């Protein structure tokens, strides 16, 4: 630490007195203890990296999710499975089993879309990544608005039949990710690191079975509806959707 008096008119004794007053309780010893985490604050924001040499617009939009051990973690993962993934190599458009894919797959210059739900220990990210032409603002806003309408459907109108479909999709993904010893070890390590214990597969299956459409709606309503978003665009971002329009569309009048 360096203390200095600039401009004259400051005696050494006065400077010493001020230093003792404001910094006298400081120590040059470090106890080598890891400081406690002071909590996490998610702030809505937007970042664009425009590069016209990149042929498409690569975009991601997410709200703050929940930690791995949170009670809403599995319902949000089920919601993530309900939206799923689509790209132009799929043979299904209007004949797809998903109502949403039937609508989004032939509009707005969309090439690829992947919904994601990432859990960390104390927080998470729930959102979508997509690739589009990036040549028309109306198309970009149309893609985002379609995604937000699907989030609205999850928060207020998803049926028990749709929930059963999402539940079975979640089971399939879960057990596929536990097929090998390496995958099972990774799963157990994450459970232990993030929650302090390891759930048995029977307990995990029971938790999934207990999620009905009301629990799914409530989880999405608490964590997605009317929440700030983090928006990122790379490539042809001239047509990237405005943060303010995206944030304003995160809520609707509901009856």
Protein described:
The protein has 255 residues and is α+β, with helices and mostly antiparallel strands. It has a single domain (45-248), classed as Metalloenzyme, LuxS/M16 peptidase-like (Cytochrome Bc1 Complex, Chain A, domain 1, 2-Layer Sandwich), CATH 3.30.830. It has nine helices and six strands, in the order H-E-E-H-E-H-E-E-H-H-H-H-H-E-H. The protein has a six-stranded mixed beta sheet with strand order 1-6-2-5-4-3, covered by helices on one side. A hairpin with a 4-residue loop joins strand 4 and strand 5 (124-132). Helix 2 (73-83) crosses helix 8 (213-223) and helix 4 (137-156) packs across helix 8 (213-223). The chain is globular, with a radius of gyration of 25 Å. The model has no long low-confidence stretch (mean pLDDT 87).
What do the pLDDT scores average to? 87
Task: Indicate the structural class.
Answer: alpha+beta
Q: Predict the CATH topology.
A: Cytochrome Bc1 Complex, Chain A, domain 1
Low-confidence stretches: none
Strand content: 15-25%
State the end-to-end CA separation: 61 Å
What is the H-and-E element order?
Answer: HEEHEHEEHHHHHEH
Bin the helical content.
40-55%
Strand ordering within the main sheet: 1-6-2-5-4-3
| Major beta sheet summary | 6 strands, mixed
**What is the CATH domain class?**
Alpha Beta
CATH architecture: 2-Layer Sandwich
Number of domains: 1
Instruction: Find the count of extended strands (DSSP E, 2+ residues).
Output: 6
If helices are DSSP runs of H or I spanning 4 or more residues, what is the number of helices?
Answer: 9
């Amino acid at each position: 630490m360096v203390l200095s008096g600039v401009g004259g008119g400051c005696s050494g004794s006065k400077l010493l007195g001020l230093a003792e007053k404001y910094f006298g309780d400081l120590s040059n010893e470090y106890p080598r203890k890891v400081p406690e985490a002071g909590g996490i604050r998610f702030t809505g924001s937007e970042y664009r990296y425009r590069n016209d040499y990149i042929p498409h617009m690569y975009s991601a939009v997410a709200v703050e999710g929940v930690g791995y051990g949170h009670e809403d973690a599995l319902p949000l993962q089920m919601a993530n499975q309900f939206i799923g993934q689509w790209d132009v190599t799929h043979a299904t458009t209007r004949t797809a089993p998903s109502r949403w894919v039937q609508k989004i797959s032939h509009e707005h210059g969309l090439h690829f879309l992947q919904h994601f739900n990432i859990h960390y220990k104390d927080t998470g990210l729930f959102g979508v990544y997509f690739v589009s032409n990036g040549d028309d603002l109306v198309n970009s806003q149309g893609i985002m608005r379609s995604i937000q309408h699907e989030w609205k459907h999850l928060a207020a109108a998803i049926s028990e039949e749709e929930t059963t479909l999402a539940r079975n999709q979640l089971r399939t993904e879960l057990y596929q990710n536990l097929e090998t010893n390496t995958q099972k070890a990774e799963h157990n390590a994450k459970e232990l690191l993030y929650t302090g214990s390891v759930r048995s597969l029977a307990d995990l299956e029971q938790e999934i079975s207990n999620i009905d459409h009301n629990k799914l709606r409530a989880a999405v309503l608490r964590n997605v509806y009317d929440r700030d978003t983090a928006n990122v665009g790379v490539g042809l971002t001239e047509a990237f959707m405005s943060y303010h329009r995206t944030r304003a569309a995160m809520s609707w009048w509901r009856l």
